[in-house]
Each structure stands twice: as structure tokens, then as C-alpha cells.
Design goal:
743 residues; alpha/beta; Dimethylsulfoxide Reductase, domain 2; seven-stranded mixed β-sheet; 17% strand; globular; binds ligand MGD; binds iron/sulfur cluster; binds molybdenum atom
Length: 743
């Protein structure tokens, strides 16, 4: 393996690429990665990895990955020093804010920031300093419906009920394909192994999906459903529970309110009424409801397929209504809530009660869409840039996001970005989005960065605390990403680009400590010693968290030092999930809100749509284990093998539309069209075509040489940015009617 006799160092590192958060063992010699494998001792993932982990080496070594800032001059991106890049931003951004106000600056943040503590905990500081209402993120292309539904029911945006997979006897998976995605809003490495164990103990896995997916292939049963119809299926199942007297709240009964309101609201959604809308026989709907109700340990889990549709929030809500009414909420073998060691709002403040969540504290200027969790829908971004008037967006800061490929109507957005007065991107590539930026500030390679997951332990199948130190040295002079974000914060606050990031951090930390700890602030500051940046925030979060040492009051408790020391032995295991109701609730009533008025009202909209006929052909998305949204198509290890950006279509539909396996087809949605390679497959539901997202790497000005060789088609060039779930603002990415013909 090693070519020299220089020492080989072994590092343990959490994979930052997807929500499974697997523990890796990485061997390094002379600052070069020589092997990556699963860390057998990891308390969460026990050695499991997928092929993407290996690509961390490719990512680190990718010659296209940016290592120096770029400034655009005369339409060309030229290398610049960090000082020059910050000076350019200081020259252009503050005057623009002074002339046009804070709302003229928009911010957009993407998926990788959820996997980097520096980005996640410092982006908010920059956003607060700017104070613009125009904050957008990939959350409104993804899970916002689930967050809103969970927030309304349980009181906080990240209080998501999770299947207790190691003890359940029936797992129903709706609109998720964890065999490809490795799980989402549910950190569950080696889903397949856990599903097999479930089956081995006599349990069942059932999948509901318009495609017979990789997950469906290992399931005991699979049912096709018409895209976008989950709300009807779920409402009908809930109706069956009431009609057949199957409602049994179990141990959470004293803390649930709204059962009778739900009964009334779903009364019209009989299985017979829902059947054709769902493309499922009424008998199937009825027997699914009975099976869930009659299995003592059962769990229903739904993900992105049920979120990225017109009724995303309703569908997400009804999943947990179903879990609650069948007595599976907060039960061993049913749905449980994680108890995270740090950062979880449902472990802070007074147990059992809280402020709950609300939406609409402000609205988008053009569409009027309500704010949700501090954000506006990312599909409003193009029109906010294009539409003149008071508050028009004139500058944009992007952080780890590629909306030109990942958001509906990418071509419209690309055009809008060109009309901005100024754009800055914190990113690791010159890609389809950052090519529009005036200044690009490179982020670190994950292997150069420390790691602690802020969000995913709140969503994990097992409680734990794991930390990773940087594996490789950071290039001389390159700031960490939190430092870059603080520099930008200083610039917009008028403190200038020359401000020292560490000093700024000290000031901000002192402010935060005073706010959070009042009279104890000085002691907290002293206790964190010489720690800086995200490490300091993490130490405070761990020590004040539910397992923490409370700054010495509980000496056996956790702190950063202990979690760091456990890295090589696989992290600290905090045990299986346990029932947490009522302590974890943060609703104003102190109850599980089964019937939030906002949702009951929206159910009327679904009722109006119950009898809509099926369009001839609708499009949905797809994930492949060797891709990751839009940004890993430049890595040779992952791009090997068959071309993955194909339009999957049922053989009968191929005949109907005159397209052939391997041939090219034109897909149209009104004036929008793309061409894609056809792949005929009886795994598709008739009337549904599936095309993955994140492709279309043939746009001029990007520097992704490997990806450009097989660019693929951009499904988001076909989708309409005006289609949203009105409650959450989430984009509709599936179930959209299109036409298809041979190209
Ligand atoms: N049609 C359709 N569209 C979809 C989806 C779908 O299912 N169908 N899925 C949606 C979902 S779930 C999501 S989450 C979004 C994702 O949407 P985005 O978050 O906008 O897109 P990504 O493709 O994840 O792009 C990540 C960006 O971050 C950069 N990056 C990667 N690593 C780092 C890093 O360490 N530091 C910094 N600073 N930058 C980094 C990459 O170069 C890239 O520009 O896409 C959505 N779009
Ligand atoms: N390999 C890989 N892993 C990833 C990603 C990736 O790009 N590649 N992306 C990551 C991200 S950002 C996320 S958010 C997660 C998402 O993780 P998952 O939610 O598991 O996402 P998908 O694999 O797209 O599975 C969604 C399923 O929903 C189905 N579906 C589509 N429309 C409907 C519908 O209307 N109703 C129902 N019932 N089903 C429908 C699709 O056919 C698909 O099988 O994956 C993450 N993991
Ligand atoms: S499943 Fe793969 S990409 Fe996801 S965390 Fe594990 S190794 Fe990384
Ligand atoms: Mo996502």
C-alpha cells in the first residue's frame, strides 16, 4: 500500500457527504490519503460505508476544486489573494446596502452546510448582521414540509419522530429510497442491514412509491402510488381508523389533543373516494390501515417524495397523525425522538412546554409567500431579483448551494443572477451557480476541517456524540469557513475587511454568553479556555446539554475534551432512543397538537382536488447511491459505470410515446424542454417518468471538467418555479405533468 517507509497515520472521521454520518477510518501518509474504509468501532455506523466515502480522496485531490479566491474581471474569473477578495467585497457590498437597504442583499445556503459545523453555526451570524428578509435555502427544495408539520405538532422544527428500526415489527416507507439515499431526516447508516434484521425477526418492510425502487426490491410488499397523491392515501387510512374503531392512542393519550377534529376533517376521505386519485385499490388502503393499527410495534416513515409536492405539509402531518392514532408515537418499536447531546431545542428551556412554531412573520415582496423558519421559498429568488421596485434584490451571497441546477427553472434563475449588481459565493467549485459570482471564496476540503454534526444527532436512530479532528493540514493562509463568514459579517457591519476573525469571534461569543448565561457568563467564558470558533460553541453546547458536565457540577458528564478523546474508539454511545413525551414537547399547550388549525384549513384544498383525473404522464426524481445532488459528478470514482441521468419509463409508455431504450427523448412542460436519454423499465408505474436531479453540466463558464464529459439533463430546467406547497413554501419537484416524444 505505502510507497515509502514514511509513517502511516490512521484518522477517524465522520463522513460529511450524506445524512447517514458514517464513521470512517482514513489512512494518511505524507499528507496523502492512502485508504478510506468503514470504522468498525463507530458507535453509530459499525463499519458501514457506501461508495461515496471513497470519493472523499478524489474530492480532496480534484484539480478543479478551488484553492484560491477568484475575482471576476471582464467576464473572466482570475485568481486573487484573500486580502484582495475581501477588499473587493468591502468596496462593493456596503455601498450597495447603504444605497438600497438591507433587503437588497439576498442570501442562499445549500445542503453541504448542514454537514459543516462552521457553516451551520456561523451562517446565522452573517444573516442576522445583514438583516435581510431575503434568506433562502435548499430546505424549501426538500424537508420544510416535514419541519413545519413536526413543529406544529411537537413544538420545534427539528423535533422529528423517528422509526425505532431496531425494535419495530412493521416499517412502512413512503416516498423514500434509503437504499440509494442512505436515509434522510433519519440518520440510519446501513438501512439495508437493519431492514434485513427486522425481516429476520419476522417483521415486514412495506414500500409505497411510484417506482419499484432498490428499497422496494428488498421489501415484503411494494405498492405503486400516483405521484402527489400521498395526502389522499394517508387521509383515507386515517379515515379507516375512525370508521373501524381502530383508534388507540396508547401511552401518549394524556398529552394528545385534537383527535375529534381530525375525525371530522378526514370523514370525506374514504378509501373508495381516494382510490383512483392514488392509483391504489380501496381494499389495499383499508388493509394497510388495519395492518398498521393491529401491529403493536409499527412505524410509518415518509420522506422527500411526500414533501416535494403540492400537499407536502399535509402529507407529512398525516404520517404522524397515523402513527399517533395507532398508538405508535413515542413507543418502543414505534416512532421515537432522539435526545441529542448538543444543540437540540427540545432539550433546552422548560421541559414540556414552549413557544411552538409560527410562520408568516414577514412575506416575500413579489409573491407574498410567508416566511417559514426564518426563510422565504428559494423558488422566489429569481422573481425577487427580476422585479423592480422598493426592496428589489441587487446582491446575493451564496454559501454551498447550486440552485441553477438544484432549483426549479434554473435557466430563469441563471439569467436573473447575471442581472445582479454584485454576487459572492463561498463554495469549493466554479460551477453552474458560482460562475455568476463576482467573487468566489473557496471553502475547505472536508478532510481539512474538523467535524461535529449539529443537526443529525437530533435525527439519529441511536443517541451518540462523535467528533472528528481535521485529517489533513489546511493550506497556509486559507481561513476556515467560519472565519470567512465572520469576515463577511464584519464587512457588512462596517467594521472592515481587516478585522481579525478571532477577535470578532471573541466579541460575539461574549455577547452570546451574556445573553444565554447571564450572571454565569464570565464563568462559562473562563471554562472554555483557549477554544475558538465552532469548537468553543460546541463545548458550551455539550456541557450545558442533557448529558453535559454542567461546567463541573456533574463531573461525570460530557464535554468536548471527552468527546474528542473518544474519536478513535468510535465515539460515545448514549444508548437506544427512549420515550420522551411529555418532556420533549415545546408547544404552547404542552400537548401533541394533532389538529393544528393551519393544517385542517389546508385539508379543504386537498378535498377540492380529490377527484382530479390523472394526467397522461407526470415526472418524478430519483437518487443513485453514486451521486450526491449536483456536486459530485466531477469525481472519477463515482462517475465510472453506466450513465445515470436517464429518463426511466414503463415499456407501455415507451410504446405510447414512441421512444426507445437508449434513444433520446424530448421532455416538455409548456415552453420548457430538455432532452434526455431513455431507459425503459417495468419498475416504473405506468404514466410516470423518472429523471434524477443535479445534472446538466454543459453550461458555459463552469470548471467541472469530468462532469462536462457526461453532462446529463437538468430536470429543473423543466420544472416551474411557481409551483409550491403554500404552507411550507416548498417547491413541487414531482407529479408535474409533462409530455414526451422521440428527439
Ligand atoms: N428536481 C429536483 N430537484 C432537487 C431535488 C430533487 O429531488 N429533485 N432535491 C433537492 C434537495 S433534497 C436538495 S438538499 C437540494 C440541494 O441543493 P443545493 O444545496 O443547492 O445543491 P447541491 O447540489 O447540494 O450543491 C452544493 C453546493 O455546495 C458546494 N459545496 C460542496 N461542499 C462544500 C463545502 O464543503 N463548502 C462549501 N463552501 N461549499 C461546498 C458545491 O460545490 C455546490 O455548489 O437539491 C434539491 N433539488
Ligand atoms: N446517493 C445519494 N444520497 C443522497 C442524496 C443524493 O443525491 N444521492 N441526496 C441527499 C439529500 S439532499 C436528501 S434530501 C435525501 C433524500 O432521501 P430520500 O427521501 O430517500 O430520497 P430519494 O432517494 O429521492 O427517494 C424518494 C422516493 O420518493 C419517490 N417519489 C417521488 N414522488 C413521490 C410521490 O409523490 N409519492 C411517493 N410516495 N413517492 C414518491 C421516488 O420515486 C423515490 O423513490 O437523500 C440524501 N442522500
Ligand atoms: S452512506 Fe456513504 S455518503 Fe453517506 S455518510 Fe455513509 S459513507 Fe458517507
Ligand atoms: Mo436534501
Amino acid at each position: 500500500m505505502s510507497e515509502t517507509n514514511h509513517p502511516v497515520h490512521t484518522h477517524h472521521r465522520i463522513c460529511p457527504l450524506c445524512e447517514a454520518c458514517c464513521g470512517l477510518e482514513i489512512k494518511v501518509q505524507d499528507q496523502k490519503v492512502i485508504s478510506i474504509r468503514g470504522h468498525e468501532a463507530d458507535v453509530l455506523s459499525r463499519g458501514y460505508i457506501c461508495p461515496k466515502a471513497i470519493a472523499l480522496k478524489d474530492l480532496h485531490e480534484d484539480p478543479d476544486r478551488l484553492r484560491t479566491p477568484l475575482i471576476k474581471r471582464n467576464g473572466k474569473h482570475e485568481p486573487a489573494t484573500w486580502d484582495e477578495a475581501f477588499a473587493e467585497i468591502e468596496k462593493r457590498l456596503p455601498p450597495l446596502m447603504a444605497a438600497h437597504g438591507k433587503h437588497a442583499v439576498a442570501m442562499a445556503v445549500g445542503n453541504p452546510s448542514a454537514h459543516k459545523i462552521g457553516l451551520l453555526t456561523y451562517f446565522g451570524k452573517l444573516a442576522r448582521a445583514i438583516g435581510s428578509r431575503n434568506v433562502f435555502s435548499a430546505s424549501t427544495l426538500d424537508q420544510m414540509p416535514k419541519q413545519l408539520a413536526s413543529g406544529l405538532m411537537f413544538g420545534h422544527w427539528l423535533s422529528t419522530a423517528l422509526p425505532d428500526i431496531s425494535r419495530t415489527d412493521l416499517l412502512v416507507v413512503i416516498g423514500a429510497n434509503p437504499l440509494a439515499s442512505n436515509g434522510s431526516m433519519w440518520t440510519v447508516p446501513d438501512f439495508k442491514g437493519k431492514a434485513k434484521a427486522l425481516q429476520a425477526r419476522g417483521g415486514q418492510l412495506i414500500v409505497i412509491d411510484p417506482r419499484r425502487t432498490e428499497t422496494a426490491a428488498v421489501a415484503d410488499a411494494h405498492h405503486f402510488i400516483r405521484p402527489g397523491a400521498d395526502v389522499f392515501l394517508l387521509a383515507a387510512m386515517v379515515q379507516v381508523l375512525f370508521a373501524e374503531n381502530l383508534v388507540n392512542l396508547g401511552r401518549v393519550a394524556p398529552w394528545v389533543q385534537g383527535t375529534e377534529e381530525v375525525r371530522a376533517a378526514v370523514a370525506g376521505f374514504t378509501p373508495e373516494a381516494a382510490a383512483s386519485r392514488c392509483g391504489m385499490p380501496a381494499d389495499t388502503i383499508r388493509s394497510l390501515a388495519r395492518q398498521i393499527a393491529s401491529t403493536p410495534k409499527a412505524a410509518v416513515y415518509a420522506r422527500i417524495g411526500t414533501c416535494t409536492q403540492l400537499y407536502g405539509t399535509l402529507a407529512s402531518w398525516l404520517v404522524d397523525v397515523l402513527n399517533t392514532l395507532t398508538g405508535h408515537l413515542d413507543m418502543e418499536g414505534g416512532m421515537l425522538f432522539a435526545k441529542s447531546a448538543a444543540f437540540a431545542s427540545n432539550t433546552m428551556g422548560k421541559p414540556g412546554i414552549g413557544k411552538g412554531v409560527s410562520t408568516g412573520r414577514h412575506h416575500a415582496r413579489v409573491s407574498g409567500a410567508p416566511e417559514v423558519y426564518g426563510e422565504l421559498p428559494i423558488t422566489c429568488m429569481a422573481e425577487e431579483i427580476e422585479t423592480p421596485g422598493e426592496g428589489q434584490v441587487r446582491a446575493l451571497i451564496t454559501v454551498a448551494t447550486n440552485p441553477v441546477l438544484s432549483s426549479p427553472d434554473g435557466p430563469r434563475l441563471a439569467k436573473a443572477l447575471d442581472s445582479l449588481d454584485f454576487m459572492v459565493s463561498l463554495d469549493i467549485y466554479l460551477n453552474e451557480t458560482t460562475r455568476h459570482a463576482d467573487v468566489i471564496l473557496p471553502g475547505l476540503s472536508p478532510l481539512e476541517d474538523l467535524h461535529y454534526d449539529v443537526a443529525f444527532p437530533q435525527l439519529s436512530w441511536r443517541n451518540h456524540a462523535r467528533y472528528s479532528a481535521p485529517v489533513l493540514l489546511r493550506p497556509e493562509g486559507q481561513p476556515e469557513e467560519w472565519q470567512t463568514l465572520l469576515k463577511l459579517t464584519a464587512i457588512v457591519q462596517g467594521q472592515g475587511a481587516r478585522q481579525d476573525a478571532n477577535l470578532l469571534d471573541d466579541q460575539q461569543f461574549a455577547d452570546d454568553a451574556n445573553r444565554l448565561f447571564g450572571p454565569h457568563a464570565a464563568a462559562v467564558i473562563a471554562a472554555t479556555g483557549s477554544l475558538r470558533g465552532p469548537q468553543r460553541g460546541l463545548d458550551v453546547a455539550l456541557r450545558s446539554g442533557p448529558y453535559g458536565d454542567q461546567f463541573g457540577l456533574k463531573p461525570e458528564g460530557l464535554n468536548l475534551k471527552k468527546v474528542m478523546a473518544a474519536s478513535d474508539s468510535g465515539g460515545i454511545d448514549l444508548g437506544e432512543l427512549q420515550p420522551r413525551i411529555p418532556e420533549m414537547l415545546r408547544t404552547p399547550s404542552g400537548k401533541v397538537e394533532l389538529a393544528p388549525p393551519l393544517l385542517l384549513q389546508d385539508l379543504e384544498r386537498a378535498a377540492q382536488d380529490l377527484r382530479a383525473p390523472a394526467p397522461d404522464l407526470v415526472i418524478i426524481g430519483r437518487r443513485d447511491v453514486r451521486t450526491n445532488n449536483s456536486w459530485m459528478h466531477n469525481l472519477p470514482t463515482l462517475t465510472k459505470g453506466p450513465f445515470r441521468c436517464t429518463a426511466l419509463i414503463h415499456p407501455d409508455d415507451a410504446v405510447r410515446f414512441g421512444v426507445q431504450d437508449g434513444g433520446m427523448a424530448t421532455l416538455r412542460n409548456g415552453h420548457r424542454s430538455v432532452q434526455a436519454q431513455v431507459q425503459v423499465s417495468s419498475d416504473m408505474m405506468p404514466g410516470v417518468v423518472s429523471l434524477p436531479h443535479g445534472w446538466g453540466h454543459n453550461l458555459p463558464g463552469a470548471q467541472l471538467r469530468v462532469a462536462a464529459e457526461r453532462p446529463g439533463a437538468n430536470i429543473n430546467a423543466l420544472l416551474d418555479d411557481q409551483l409550491r406547497d403554500p404552507l411550507s413554501g416548498n417547491a413541487v419537484l414531482g407529479g408535474v405533468a409533462i409530455t414526451m416524444e422521440a428527439a
